[in-house]
Amino acid sequence: MMHTTLHWSNQVTLLFDSWNTKSWPSYALALLICFLVALFYQRLEALRLRLRLRLKSAASPANPSPPSLSTPLIVRKLGRNWKIRLGLAALFGLNSGIGYLIMLAIMSYNGVLLAVVLGLTVGYFVFRSEDFGDGDDSFVAAEPCACLDSL
């Protein structure tokens, strides 16, 4: 039976019927996996935000020359940095999918919540907190999650 309130038990079903824990070692392994997935989520988010910063810094000058007729149509429509933008879109989609899976795991209402929050916190500290310490305000991300950040 799935609980709808916070409970503490080593018998949990996470995401799929086949992923259930029945002992403390399997529960600890599930918590470790949730922690690592949350850590990976923050790593991907840091990578996506750095790519986004690179795209902004590589933007064309204030008075760009108009594209010539020999410029391919896809480059005229998408811009010269279309590969970076495509990579950003792919990372955003992947990170959003992972974020929603994390959200569903949290909804098991047990220690998974603590493992995920701890993983997100450690991931943010390791992969993203250095962005605020060097006095450079060019890279500021207000939202910790990809689904809350607007492109």
UniProtKB/TrEMBL annotation:
It comes from Sesamum calycinum. Keywords: Copper, Copper transport, Ion transport, Membrane, Transmembrane, Transmembrane helix, Transport. It is a multi-pass membrane protein. Its main location: membrane. The keyword Acetylation does not apply. It holds the Pfam family Ctr. This is Copper transport protein. The chain crosses the membrane at residues 24-44, 86-103, 109-127. It is found in: Membrane. Belongs to the copper transporter (Ctr) (TC 1.A.56) family. SLC31A subfamily. GO terms for cellular component: plasma membrane.
